[in-house]
Design a protein that fits this description.
Layout lengths: L2 H15 L15 H13 L8 E4 L5 H8 L4 E5 L2 H13 L7 E3 L12 E7 L7 H14 E12 L4 H7 L16 H10 L2 E9 L6 H8 L9 E8 L1
Parallel strand pairs: 1-2, 1-4, 2-3, 4-5
Antiparallel strand pairs: 5-7, 6-7
Length: about 240
């Protein structure tokens, strides 16, 4: 097993014992500004059609899966953390949604049928993956998607002011679980290298009031104001 895989497995205990205690368990079922921001941005990359079969890899607290269920979509949420899946199930039950649609699997080795999904969402996942594990994720996504299927990636942009501050522990604290940020250039090249076609790629502003307006007007020109990378690719 290569070093990246070993380190990723070691992180699993962190997700199961520490990570989900850092934010209240009601996080995913509250209509907070951040949740609204995340869901809006992710669905702006690609809004699925009712008949499409959807999988949410690295579902975390279940933000995207739960939002899609609320909108009437059938979506399968996957995460390799048992704590994550238990939390998602509890939240789904609280909201009278289908808790059986969350299962504990590794996003790089789901064991699910090939060519069986129309849409794959990876929202706030890839920054948590070491390089070699990210490469395995792309292989698995390609396997899972039907030909012409849609692949959504949404992830923090390492050039943004907040991420630079976090990296150096300046006011904002470094996020331990963010082990490998991906630039927009790297995301696009990794997708084309793995037989995807990039349909669109853009930056999103942050959810902080006033700053979001400044970023929206300037992110085209200043990397410091590009809060999130948003990419839509299709399987060739």
């Amino acid at each position: 097993m290569n070093q990246d895989k070993i380190k990723q497995q070691q992180m699993k205990s962190y997700y199961n014992n520490t990570f989900y205690e850092s934010i209240p368990h009601s996080f995913a079922d509250r209509e907070t500004r951040f949740n609204q921001y995340m869901v809006k941005n992710v669905l702006s990359i690609y809004y699925p059609k009712k008949h499409e079969k959807i999988i949410d890899l690295g579902c975390g607290w279940g933000n995207i899966s739960l939002a899609l269920q609320k909108r009437g979509f059938s979506v399968l949420g996957i995460d390799y953390s048992e704590d994550s899946i238990n939390l998602c199930k509890k939240t789904a039950e609280k909201l009278d949604l289908d808790s059986s649609r969350f299962i504990c699997r590794d996003a790089t080795d789901t064991g699910l049928k090939s060519n069986s999904f129309d849409v794959v969402y990876c929202a706030d996942l890839v920054e948590h993956l070491y390089p070699a594990v990210y490469d395995e994720l792309l292989i698995e996504v390609y396997r899972l998607l039907k030909k012409g299927g849609e692949f959504v990636i949404y992830t923090p942009n390492p050039s943004h002011l907040f991420e630079i501050m976090k990296k150096h522990n300046i006011i904002l604290k470094k996020v331990v679980s963010h082990v490998d940020y991906k630039t927009m250039k790297r995301l696009k090249s990794s997708l084309t290298d793995n037989r995807f076609t990039v349909k669109k790629a853009f930056y999103c502003e942050s959810h902080v009031p006033i700053l979001d307006l400044i970023e929206r007007l300037t992110l085209k020109f200043f990397p410091l104001f590009r809060r999130r990378n948003a990419v839509l690719a299709i399987k060739n």
